[in-house]
Design brief:
Elements (H helix, E strand, L loop, with lengths): L3 H13 L5 E12 L9 E17 L4 E6 L4 E6 L8 H10 L6 E7 L8 H17 L5 H16 L6 H8 L5 E5 L5 E4 L5 E7 L7 H19 L18 H20 L4 H17 L6 H11 L4 E6 L7 E7 L3 H16 L4 E4 L1
Parallel strand pairs: 3-5
Antiparallel strand pairs: 1-2, 2-5, 2-6, 3-4, 6-7, 8-10, 8-11, 9-10
Helix pairs in contact: 2-3, 2-4, 3-4, 3-5, 4-5, 6-7, 7-8, 9-10
């Protein structure tokens, strides 16, 4: 009973009265640099986290899907071809885009925290991996990731870029994954020598993340149009942005400077990488305006700690997680110092996510 796969199998059988045909999983991710650039052809530098979403499937011989979330203790039933509500679109979108006409029983079991760590992308990639195994679909890992993006656009209603699904499908927990989100070329990049990653949950639920995300995307697309470039990836001189209205200038300045930070980080030592993370947070807070006062407080506490090279918000923003690059072997000690100070200052209880 201590084997997670055994526990999940028994849970599936207790819910649906049969064993699953396939089981697949995918990790969440944390992004160290390259935030809000992937829908403008930019560069990103995520890594996978240990927490994963697991999806089990079986064909049930009916014309309806039964979708069970272990964490929510909730079962949703949708007709084949319907999108459904709540968490259903993340699965039914995968079913529809994969051309599945069978009724399916699905059990979702995920320990990926919500709020900046790509829990939705992990669910989509896990579902698509399970479908690939069940129906022998000829999907590469990249094609699978792109299908997950399509699910977000067409079924969930979030006009995300490609980073989250690419990281969930292709990254590992040992290295960073540099992704050129225009060409989809990628390569593994080691962490700076003598460093490790610390991820803290701010304890602030993300608010306005979806609507704010879509609004920011529309703003930088308008900036690209006014500049006469396909994407802000094609702007290499901040001075080119001076023709833009003030709000669009700030939005575009974040994207252009963030791309430069990712490329600069590839040759940086831990201290230099940390400074780039600090600059990234300031840009996200001031130019892109997607941070949150409590998140800013937590970042400031991390940045002031002697064992921290740099820290920033991560993910879509408006709450959620914070990532820090810290001296190797100190992550738990840093969390032990910073989290109590954060709670004392804000009244909000945060928690350590990674490592």
């Amino acid at each position: 009973m201590n084997n997670p796969t055994e526990i999940s199998t028994q849970t599936f059988q207790s819910v649906f009265g049969a064993l699953p045909e396939v089981t697949a999983s995918a990790p969440g991710r944390v992004n160290l640099l390259g935030e809000h650039t992937d829908y403008q052809g930019g560069f990103v530098l995520p890594t996978a986290i240990p927490q994963r979403a697991t999806v089990q499937l079986r064909r049930n011989g009916t014309v309806r899907h039964q979708l069970r979330s272990v964490q929510l203790a909730q079962t949703l039933v949708t007709a084949v071809g319907d999108v459904g509500e709540n968490f259903a679109p993340y699965l039914t979108g995968c079913f529809a885009l994969s051309g599945i006409h069978d009724g399916l029983d699905a059990l979702i079991d995920s320990d990926v925290p919500s709020g900046g760590l790509s829990s939705s992308a992990a669910l989509e990639v896990a579902t698509l991996r399970a479908l690939r195994d069940l129906y022998h679909l000829p999907l590469s890992d990249v094609e699978l990731a792109l299908r997950g993006v399509q699910v977000e656009h067409e079924f969930v209603g979030v006009m995300c870029g490609v980073m989250d699904q690419m990281a969930s499908s292709l990254a590992d927990t040992r290295t960073l994954l540099l992704i050129d989100t225009r060409s989809l070329e990628r390569r593994a990049v080691p962490l700076p020598t003598g460093s490790e990653v610390l991820v803290l949950d701010s304890g602030v639920p993300r608010r306005l993340a979806e609507s704010g995300y879509n609004e920011r995307r529309a703003q930088v697309e308008e900036a690209s149009r006014l500049l006469g470039v396909p994407e802000l990836r094609d702007v290499h001189d901040i001075g080119q942005l001076d023709i833009l209205p003030p709000l669009l200038l700030r939005r575009a300045r974040h994207v252009v400077s963030e791309n430069a930070r990712v490329l600069e980080s590839l040759d940086a030592d831990a201290a230099g990488f940390g400074k780039l993370m600090n600059a990234s947070h300031a840009s996200l807070r001031d130019d892109y305006q997607v941070s949150h006062p409590q998140v800013d407080n937590l970042v400031a506490l991390l940045q002031a700690d002697d064992a921290v090279y740099g820290a920033r918000m991560t993910g879509a923003g408006f709450g959620g997680a914070v990532v820090a690059l810290v001296r190797e072997g100190t992550a738990s000690d840093v969390a032990g110092r910073v989290l109590p100070a954060y709670e004392a200052a804000t009244g909000v209880h945060g928690s350590q996510v990674v490592p």
